[in-house]
Amino acid sequence: MSARILVVEDEPAIAESVAYALRRDGFSVTVAQTLAEAEARRAEADLVILDLMLPDGSGFEWIGSLRAERRDKPIIVLSSRDGEADRVAALETGADDYVTKPFSPREIVARVRAVLRRSIASVAPEAAPATQAVELDEKTRRARVGDAALELTRVEFDLLACLLKGPDRVHTRVELIDRVWGGGFAITDRTIDSHVKALRRKLAEAGADPGTIETVRGVGYRVGSGSNGGP
Ligand code: CA
Cα 127 from chain centroid? Predict the structure, then answer.
């Protein structure tokens, strides 16, 4: 099967190079130069590559509208080098990944493949992974990995619960601090990182994949969709 990619980008040179690289890799590609064109083509796309600054508006709102329609249509945002706030906002709005300009065509192809793999895995679960899935019971606040109970602190439990609720999505540190500690606390990035470190160690000791919690450099954390075995 060849996935259909919709490239929404108004700079012709960038759109051309992305389209060329993807086609060479076997994808079927449509280019839209405006949000209006993108809107007309959205139904036929399996994945969207989206520039945020377009002649007829901002890509942000469009991400929201795509998200409202279908959960499993991945979005990769093209962002400028100094647009860290944009990247974080795009991920929080529901984008799956981002690529910073200037990027190599190879990089974009690799991101597309990775995002599609994750999205296919979340739609059609594969055979049981070799490592045990993590299960949380929010009522009893008990955590387990297979048959092994997992002793977690309040913060570790809430962190893990938050990550597991949005599998495959990047959770920014700001978002995690907000959800786990609530407003009014002065929590540094290092504090959250050290809790994640402790959590990883406990997961590994209980037999879960230590890579369950992935670090997304400069942004936050993500848990793959294969990690949560329980309902
Ligand atoms: Ca642009």
Answer: 22
Domain total of the chain? 2
Structure tokens at 105: 């065509």
Residue 46 belongs to domain spanning: 4-127
120 CA → ligand 1 middle, Å: 29
**Of the candidate ranges 29-33, 45-49, 208-212, the one whose mean pLDDT is the lowest:** 208-212
Do 147 and 229 touch, CB atoms closer than 8 A?
no
Q: In angstroms, what is the span from residue 10 Cα to ligand 1's centroid? A: 5
- Verdict on whether the full-model pTM lies above 0.85: no
Instruction: Report CA(215)–ligand 1 centroid distance (Å).
Output: 29
Same domain, yes or no: 41 and 138: no
CA 77 to ligand 1 center in whole angstroms: 11
Is residue 191 in some structural domain? yes
88 Cα to the center of ligand 1, angstroms: 18
167 C-alpha to ligand 1 centroid (Å) = 30
User: CA 42, 220, 102: angle at the middle one, nearest 5?
Assistant: 55
Same domain flag for 97 and 22: yes
Tokens of 96: 């799956």
Averaged pLDDT for residues 82-108: 88
